[in-house]
Amino acid sequence: MFDFLKTMSRDVKLIRQSDPAARNTLEILLTYPTLRAIRCYRLAHWFYIRKNFTTARIISQWARSKTGIEIHPGATIGKGLFIDHGMGVVIGETAVIGDNCLIYQGVTLGGTGKDKGKRHPTLGNNVLVGAGAKVLGPFTVGNNVKIAANAVVLNAIPDNCTAVGVPAHIVKMNGKKVHKVTADIDQIHIPDPVSQELCRLQAEVDSLKKELSELKKQ
Known about the structure:
Number of strands: 16
Distance between the termini: 88 Å
Helix content: 25-40%
Radius of gyration: 21 Å
Shape: elongated
């Protein structure tokens, strides 16, 4: 009971620190789906590791119906996970999430359908996964990584990187820009390296057209 209350207190404190809309403890306890989903996950995981798989899945599916957050009871989740809003979040059976991670709504930590055994990604500590992002496959996303909203990550990402795009590209590593960006990731002003490359190619085509037009005039 003491461990349960200690864990609950830590989760509530985390939500108050992470969400500026959180007004008080009672509101968090009664209305925050992330709190209910993670509590149910912990209970389901307890049954799962004791090979009571049916009970574990019943609990996880009940939590899914109530919160819109689907966490497979086989997943491994560290301390301090905050799922903001949460609707549509899916976390697969062999996914591993480190400490102090932040996941937004619509995120999938899933598989590609081609792998057996370890099928889902591993997130390090202090990872941010933006709204709608898909991280698919049995690779590792390093510590302190930021994944932009709607990015599709299909390969490993080293520590201290920012990744954007479909498929995801690294645009910042160890505090240094890999591609020119205008601002740090903020879920709104996110550079798209594919779009940037297309713009560069369009500029080259326009330049060639201009040169060709001038030659015709001569």
